[in-house]
Amino acid sequence: MDVMPLLLLVAGSAAVAGLARRTPVPAPLLLVAAGIGAAYIPGIPDYTLDPHIVLPLLLPPLLHTAALESSYLDLRANLRPVALLSVGYVLFATLAVGYAAYLVIPDLPLTAALVLGAVVAPPDAVAATAIARKLGLPNRITTILQGESLVNDATAITAYKVALGAAVGVGATWGGGIREFAVASVGGVGIGVLLMVPLHWLRRRLRESALLENTLSLLIPFVAYAAAEQVGASGVLAVVVVGLYLGHRSWQVDFETRLQEDAVWKVVSFVLESAVFALIGLQLPVVLRGLGEFSGAQALWYAAVVFVVVVVARFVWVFPATYLPRLLSARVRARETDTTWTAPVVVGWAGMRGVVSLAIAFSIPVAVHGGGDFPARNLVLFLTFTTVIATLVIQGLTLPPLIRALKLPPRDVQAETLAEAEAQNEASRAAEARLDELMEDSRNQLPGPLSDRLRTVMERRRNSVWERLGSVNEATGESADETYRRLAREMIDAERRVFVDLRDARRIDDEMLRTLLRRLDLEEAAAYREGAS
User: How far apart are CA 456 and CA 479, in angstroms?
Assistant: First the structure.
């Protein structure tokens, strides 16, 4: 196997993603544009998207990372809007896009049109949630977009399988489709529930070895996905359930494991997200080569129709899904008093499609049952590609100015900081009481300076959050907390340079240097995290 194309893809996409941080253009858009440009550079390998790689190898870790970073409590509190989008909207979009394509494209069977509908139905909210966080959108909107992206792939893949069964002639009925959807969803959740507790138990039993725990962490999404798919259930839902549970219980694992795991999954997420968006752009030559009998003008007309239907269908679903529950339920009205028309506008426009749609499209078989060609397979690939590109470019570029124009209420940073300070104050009191209790035991006696240090560190944690609410240094523009962290880093840097000089002078060896540097690294991480916003 030639690994050079893979290395080129990873290195190139990482470089473009790094460059995007220095520009106002969102990284996904720049990566797609770079992929399209790179596809026509002589000597660039042909990157044909393989669904057997994307779905079982790339999708599970991306879903697992998103689930680990999601809040189970927030998702549970917003279960209704998340379910209406991730299940209801995906099925509605499948039917709307499928029927529109059936009416517009001559000789396209309804079953094949519904395959297209299922393929382009699930939004990929990676770009949307990144923009939401960057612009400080209210937490509820970000949670809804993130929750939708965790579950909608499972709905779309199941709808695709049902529509594909009818299109290729192996037989599919409404009853069979509903049954398959129920098996996939209930089975996926069930497999996740069966795996989550033993996997967490195993992680806790490995707490003496952070390396083993993180190796297990890297394997978990693939194990959950494969186990569910093996029995015909939804691997997506199994991965999401396990990830949500482990993220909710992450406080029970060793601190060193949490630090390593956070760093490991950030790297994995960065590399995979960069690669998949670059892969989208690299598919353009592959898609155009297979367009076949359809002329460019025809294909572009069909692409415009599908894009418009995709966008309109989302708004047609989002507004009733937002306001009908409020009209029908007094409890919903009492609980969601701050709902305004601007929130559904943002959620409706944040419907960018991504690599999952393309991966599903490339998995469409070439032939139907009995030996004939799949109807307009190449056109379906082209329409999927144009829909993904159009939503990423048009909606992705206009979402930030739309959010600014709507003037949504920003996150109340002051209130969040105050809540954090109060929580830290409560925790510090508990820690102080526990220290007093322990110090009464003669076995826990410490020299005065060490005892004072414990109390000083505790007091520092308690005060750091309150200081963020205080005044700013006029000379530096820093809060007291920021000045503290800067001075702490300077002091640690001075120690670090001394250790290196001692190693170079052969007064200590490299093994001792690594031990001392790791201790300083942990102290620097602690100094940075204290009060980091």
Answer: 20
